[in-house]
Structures are given as structure tokens and as C-alpha cells.
Amino acid sequence: MLVAGNIVSNTSFHSLAAGSVRGGAPRARIAVYKACWNQGSEGTKCTHASILAAIDDAINDGVDILSLSLGGGINMVPGTLHAVAKGITVVFSAGNDGPAPQSVKNNAPWVISVAASTIDRSFPTIITLGNRQKLVGQSVFYASGISINNNFTKLVYGVSCDNITLTELNVTGRIVLCYDPTTVAQILPRSNFGEVLQSVLDAGGRGLIYAQYTVNLLFPFEGFPYALVDFEIAYKIYSYIGSTSIPLVKISPAYNIEGEQVLAPKVAAFSSRGPNPTFPGILKPDIAAPGVSILAAMQGGYQFDSGTSMACPHVSGIVALLKAVHPDWSPAAIKSAIVTTG
């Protein structure tokens, strides 16, 4: 959990981000209300009626804080306004449609809208070219009881790595460089990587180097070498491919570094931006909190996840601590204290 939970030692995700974890407000008690349902092929749906019913139940149960990691522009104006009128602080995720402007969601004036920021932890992945040049990408590529091929593998340039191109190139058993700067203006970073990864797998590729203008949105993957690189690194790899008749590459598993050598915090590339499209006179998002590669308790273990849904409970934990110290503060006073504290 991110909001509450006692200290747990010796946690990690396959030895990455090893250490101790705890919730932001360890002594807080959590009430859980189901508002989203699995609709099979349509995925998980959170209807307005279900969310309003959950908010109504929470108000009647006397909760102090509502932490709502929900997107889709659901302001839930009646429910959240009634909650705030009852002295309940409402904290919302701001959405993951960045870096497009005016994409911020859940932007009612009386709620706290939370953007996502990076943290001082990074997962470098060493890319070694056949000429022994070492470059650095980012990934959560790991090996858990799987034998990793430490030998050099043939490298091929797949341009945008669409299915037609991959079929024509015959990428079977090769690591593919997906680098197409001409599509930057049309494709958001998070929306294409999964599709390209699956295409490379289906085509028999042995690994993937994927170029995009941000590398702070990572996807855990076991046993399949991959690395996200920026366009500067991608161009160096592209130039190497053109300089030799048999380009080779090796991708090492990720490791983690922490502290001052990581430039953070920065607003995550995927985090929705202002200005506020619904209430132009109200600045939104209100605040940013850690939301990139967060180690969180999930399904009996710990996994990395990214999004403003990870950032939202960080702020909810701070609200809980403030409520404990200042139980007489109103939601407006708590929000003011948070957004005006440097």
C-alpha cells in the first residue's frame, strides 16, 4: 500500500529497488469501496453510478479522506462536493494524457488534483555495441532464474517496427532498433511501446531497443532484453549499424542507482498538464508527487507501476498525517498547506 501500511523489510522487485517500504501514514486505517468492474473484453469499467455510490457509502461511514486514483475526466461533482462539505478531503489523480496541454482531469476547484513526478531512482541498462562502445538506456529488464544470453546478437534497424517492415527484414533471432523520429509529433510515448514490443516478439525478435523522447515510463519484462533510449543514443546506434556489415549488440539486465546522481524530481512525461480546461481561472494540477516506477504492494508481492494513480496516494498519506496533527483543519486549509509549502 502507498497510503498506509507498517514497515516491511527486504522488499524488492527481482532485486531492483531493494530496501524497506512503508505507507505514507503507517497508522492510518483504510476503508475500501469497490467501484470498478471487469467487463471482459471491454476491460475494467468504473461507471459514474458505481463511483457515486462508493463516495456516498464512504461519507456515511465517516471517512476522513477520499483517495481516488481514477481517470477519464470523472469530476464526480455532486459526490465530491458533498464530501468536502462534510469535512472530507478529496484527492484525485490528474490523468496520464501528457505531455499534451489542457489534458488535466479531475479538476474541480475543491479537490486536490495530483500530477506525477520522477524520483531519485533510475534503472540504467548497458547497451554494448559490437565495436565495444557502451551506451546507456533505461529498462526494467530482469532475469529471475532464467539463463540470459551474454553473447553478442545481430542487430537490425527496424525503423518504426510496424508488422510489414519487421516481416520484410526477417528479424528472427535478432535485436531490433526501433527508431523513427518522423513520428514523434503523432505518437505519445506510452501508446506505442507495447504494440511495438508485441510486434517484435511475434516476428521472432530476440530483443528491442526503442527510441522515444522520454525514458521515464518503464515496463517490467522478464528474460527479453530491451532498453528505452533517447534520440541521441538511438542515432549513435543507427550510425553504428550503417558503419559495419555485421552489426552486433548486447543488452545487459538493468540495475538501480539512487540519490544525487539522478536528476529528480521532474514532471513525468505522461502526466496530464494544465491549463485547466474546465475552470480556466483555477490552476491545475495542484501538486506533483512520486509516480514513476513506484514499488508498490500488488497481488501478494511488490511490482513497479507508474501513473498519477501512484502519485495520488502519496498525497493522501500526507493529508492523513496533517489530519492527525490538525484534526480541526478544513479540506481547504489542508489543501492550502500542501500546495503552498515549498
TrEMBL record:
Transmembrane segments: none annotated. Pfam families: Peptidase_S8. One of its GO terms (molecular function) is serine-type endopeptidase activity. The keyword Protease applies. CDD domains: PA_subtilisin_like. Residues 2-341 form the Peptidase S8/S53 domain. Keywords: Hydrolase, Protease, Serine protease, Signal. It comes from the Eukaryota. GO terms for biological process: proteolysis. Belongs to the peptidase S8 family. This is Subtilisin-like protease SBT3.3.
